[in-house]
Amino acid sequence: MGTSVQVTPLSGVFNENPLSYLVSIDGFNFLIDCGWNDHFDPSLLQPLSKVASTIDAVLLSHPDTLHLGALPYAMKQLGLSAPVFSTEPVYRLGLLTMYDQYLSRRSVTRLTYSQNYHLSGKGEGIVVAPHVAGHLLGGTVWKITKDGEDVIYAVDYNRRKEKHLNGTVLESFVRPAVLITDAYNALHNQPPRQQREMFQDAISKTLRAGGNVLLPVDSAGRVLELLLILEDYWAEHSLNYPIYFLTYVSSSTIDYVKSFLEWMGDSITKSFETSRDNAFLLKHVTLLINKSELDNAPDGPKLVLASMASLEAGFSHDIFVEWASDVKNLVLFTERGQFGTLARMLQADPPPKAVKVTMSRRVPLVGEELIAYEEEQTRLKKEEALKASLVKEEESKASLGPDNNLSGDPMVIDANNANASADVVEPHGGRYRDILIDGFVPPSTSVAPMFPFYENNSEWDDFGEVINPDDYIIKDEDMDQAAMHIGGDDGKLDEGSASLILDAKPSKVVSNELTVQVKCLLIFIDYEGRADGRSIKTILSHVAPLKLVLVHGSAEATEHLKQHCLKHVCPHVYTPQIEETIDVTSDLCAYKVQLSEKLMSNVLFKKLGDYEIAWVDAEVGKTENGMLSLLPISTPAPPHKSVLVGDLKMADLKPFLSSKGIQVEFAGGALRCGEYVTIRKVGPAGQKGGGSGTQQIVIEGPLCEDYYKIRAYLYSQFYLL
Fold this sequence. Notes:
It contains 19 helices and 37 strands. By secondary structure, the protein is an alpha/beta fold. The protein folds into 4 domains: 5-189 and 526-582, Ribonuclease Z/Hydroxyacylglutathione hydrolase-like (Metallo-beta-lactamase, Chain A, 4-Layer Sandwich), CATH 3.60.15; 194-257 and 264-365 and 507-524, 3-Layer(aba) Sandwich (Rossmann fold); 594-632, no CATH class; 644-720, no CATH class. The longest helix has 34 residues, at 367-400.
């Protein structure tokens, strides 16, 4: 049978909840994405908690809360200890997004796009590779390969090329064994370009009327595209209204992004290569890391991009409360709010006129609360010291051992000796071994002077105890951990971030509920950067997986896409429920064979890019251990026709021949080379053009010098076996 594949959703099916899926391949358990929401609802992690300890590897696709938000919690609380794989931007921006340092730098293996990573141990034979997804910087379509069969995980991808990202490469995969994808946008179509231009118009109109504009954004995801759009628009129209990017990690985000140009779109990388122009050297955007900087900014209309996008917490929450009652202001949403959040409520049609919000702030403890806190801390320290002393005593007893009899030592009083005094009882119930002063004979009627004796296993020389220098060296991993707690991988830390981490003053959170009258303008314009319904259906038809698993989307969207795919994509479409395991093992019959050493010794390999290929004539036999093996054939092999290996496109052939001095032009779907020779690509049955099945490249023309020259050039683009 084929490679065994089971898929178990842990979160994010038939709804818009965070994404988290268990994919088992021949018993090797992948956790693909580990998302949470801005409510940080522990109940969502209950299915994950049941399997966290069985996870063998974690694959992350995007650097936002919905895709990796629960990973620090799962590592700290749920027993998740598997290695983590992601692209470099997902790792870096994920740290900033989560603002949590539980992910030490060695807990994530960072891969480049299209890099194959061969798992070892339990995962021997499995290869994982990230590919471009679009949507977010570093966003990943994961390809998992075992025994020649591909399992593709592709969620939140974008087909369109944007200012800072290329489109997805999902369409380059054809007929994988299993495709796991989402139905999130199956019922949505991208707005026309005219509606997208309303984004800039709505902002400029509000600012010119004297109002403020709030864009609730994520920390390090889609906000990058918005910053470039606004930067270009401000430069094109010579606007002088201030733009503020306000998050606790805004400066770190931009610093990191400046170094990720190779992960971005072609236009950005080419611009940097030719003119050293970094697109994220923002000239019109001011980076802020605390709200006091915004409060102290000059009066007047302003545009603020602030986190979080859900309005549930963060600077955007506080700014909304302050600005919502002014009719001149605008709150512009560029993505659908997470389900059940304030942002989603405000995006309802028509929106509520009044909303209840909770305002929370941290205040230092004073008076009786501070005294009680300090007393509690003192009590806890005493308990810890007591526990430590007990542990030390038990270790000392264990080191002595039951067979360590000191009765033969004349300096030690044996408890069984009639002349020995009673043992001295240690305060915590232990008993010390007693030693007499040399030369002192205790009177029979009194207790001898006794002193505690501890077994010392240390080595000594003429100058005292031998010191081991390694005991005083700070280990690299300890330094790395300390650096992560203080300032990320390179020690950088925003001022606001440092104040949060390093502030050890006793404090408490005070919350109160307010009713906010919403009088400002509320607008939603889709800048999510996801493929729309039409694109999804087109891509799935092109990929044509053998089996399809649909996750993450409303019940209506999931059912709609399922019915479409059953008719137009493949007959095997699955929509599992939470914790429902489905078996999507392929129906193909796959066998493993060994290549015998005798056969391999006569095989001639030829280099093909990163691989070596060869033609093998062999027969299938069995070895002594019963496994199938390819053995040399018993009779001489008949000659075989030459095989040309490679993928030559007509569009690539034209500039190649032109570079060789041959005049080439397209004519009627063929290449006209010089005066006499024509090159065509023909399909099965000699039909010209494309079509399914084997295709051939045909050279037509008289047997002249140009013919042989062009044929030689053509052959040079292939590998001959």
